[in-house]
Structures are given as structure tokens and as C-alpha cells.
Amino acid sequence: RLRAFAVERGVANFDDQSAGYLFDRFAPDPQPQATSISYFFLDTSSRAGWRYDPGSNSYERTMRGRPHIDRVTGEQLRTQNVVVMEVAEALRPGDDKQRIDQQVIGEGPARIFYAGRMVEATWRKPSAEAPLRFYDSSGEEIVFTAGQIWIAAVPTLERLTVE
To answer: Model pTM?
Structure first.
């Protein structure tokens, strides 16, 4: 349906190199640096996480220490890439429900996990219209392993645990 829609709209041959992320195929790291990742948003009871499975070269999601199962498929959620980025948070002024807004315009630190590896990174999004991008310590754009990307935004990377 998406292909038919793209053809109908005249964008079937979309070739904007600035759109999307960079991907390649990475073999599982023979000595994984990150086999277990967990983080929390408000308190430790809401901890979410990922366990690296070298057999599928992907990460399986957990919630509160248990597998996070998709209600429709009955299978555990999984992804090939996990990004945990630090973003500033603030309570919405005058909001009686005390909801939180996250500041996702700007830049900040991030940790990126793929193929058992962990990469220290910086995220950048200079404006609301600009794409969110991730860069390594030498300033090169991150190349993710082929597959899905799960992005989590937390108020501080001190809430991230990596084993």
C-alpha cells in the first residue's frame, strides 16, 4: 500500500540523501560490550531494558524485569539498534497533571548499542524541522546496523545501566 501511495503521489523514486539514517551490516561482536541495557524515566520501578541476543544480533525488550510481549503477535519486542539519549525535562507550567515536556531541540549525549557494541555519541537536532542525527566522538555520523532503531529519551544518562 505504501508503494502504491508513493507512486500515486509521484515520490516513488525518492532519493533525498539527507533523509533517514546510515545503515550497514555488522556481525555480532565476538566479545559483546553491552549484553544488558536498562534505564528508567521517573523511578526505578518503571525500569525498561534490553538483552542482547547474539544469535539474532538483536536486542530483546524487557519491562520491569520481564519480557515485553507484543499483544498482537505474542512475541517479545526486539530491535537491532538501541539509542538512549539524554534530554532536558521540565514540568509543564500550570499543568495540574504534572506532565513533563522533553527538550529535543539542541544537542546532548547519547549511548548507541548495536551488534553487542556500545558507542558514546552526541545527538543533534538544531531546529524543529531538522532531522535528529547521531555522531560519534570524532564527529562522524553514526552508521547503524541494518534494521530497526529504538530511541529512548531520559533526563540523565545516570539512569542508564550497561552490563
So the answer is: 0.88
